[in-house]
Amino acid sequence: MTAKEICYEIINNSNDLIYVTDLETNKVIFANKRLLQVIGKSESEVFGKLCYQALQGKDSPCEFCTNAVLSTEKIYEWEFFREDLQQYFTLHDKKIIVNGRECRVEIGSDITAQVQEKQDIKNKLNMERTLIQCIDTLNNENDVNKAINELLKIVGETYEGDRAYIFERCEADNTVSNTYEWCKKGIVPQLELLQKIPFSSFGMWIERFNNHKARIIYSLKDELEHESEEYKILGAQNINSLIAAPLFNNGQLIGFIGVDNPSVEYLHYGLLEQVTSFIVNDLQKRLLIEKLQILSYKDSLTGVCNRTSYIKYLDELKNKQYSSLGVVFLDINGLKKANDSKGHDYGDYIIMTISKLLQTTFGEKVFRIGGDEFVALCEGIKRMEFEEKEQSLREFVLQNTEIKFSLGAVWTDRTVAADLLINSADKAMYEEKRSYYQKDRPCDGKL
Fold this sequence. Notes:
Alpha-Beta Plaits, 3 domains, 15 helices, Beta-Lactamase, five-stranded antiparallel beta sheet, 23% strand, alpha+beta, rod-shaped
């Protein structure tokens, strides 16, 4: 075998992609086996054909052609991503003379694995930095809701998505509701529309979530049945792709965090899975704060608003405009006697019965301001409606032989301070109570 034949064998069987073209005609005069194998063509489909047609599938010279910068003195090195092959190459180009004609020789080395490895390392570093940023945000912000919203902004921007959101599950009716949301500029918010959705609509999600796996949709149109509930819900939000990760607390699936239309590059980024435990901690912290707030503003026995809530509401009324205001001040008659004779459980029964009566009659703004005292306030109520409510309370007393109370009721449509109106109702109640006890015990002036 001659030296020329040896060189040919080495080049033709190299793992690099090698070809030679005539610089004047752009026709391919040689392509090695590896190149033909990669582009899936035979020698007859390549040799003697225009290089941009045979090698790149183009109808005109490549916009990235390097012919103009080639020389016989040095090698021109550059990198190129071939989209149809989804591969990265390092290319070495040089001008050579073959049989007196100027030719171009190009040697391409597949560096896809190295590029992906570098990208993976870069993504991992970015994820770690972002994760630290997310943790810092949750730890350093005292306002839980603000912290979670800021975290969603970080997550959404990292994934280059349209929306980032959290859905929380309600076990009572097995629905999920969108509770937090971040939207990229120009994206229409969906939070108010995505409430009380049956979790059964996301059967595929539940299966993956229960196995602690993320739900990834690369193409909504290609992957989902167009008649499915999942497709209808997601399609209505202009979602083309998404990634969602489950949120677990003590082994129970309590919701999920997701990103709509993320960059394909970041679909396997892993950030969502990393932040879930920190999000769950903050969600549980929020629930605890909400419970404490309820305890601080609700009466533990009856569930109606307590004295703290009453004082707060009066402060709010000072800065409020209202067309009318009705006030009922109620005091239970004989509660101490009932407690002493029949026990505190019976006394509690009386208190709870009256609180339910007041709630049924007046709604939310019912306050237990003392052991046996209640106040109900009605904003914007008409006189006739208010008087009907008052009368229904009085009828309850007439029809009930066990439970008695005294009440004072005042209504106005004038601009009067709420505390003055409440004082008037209190005085009316006091007079009614005095009359009640005078009838019951005419010789005893004590109330």
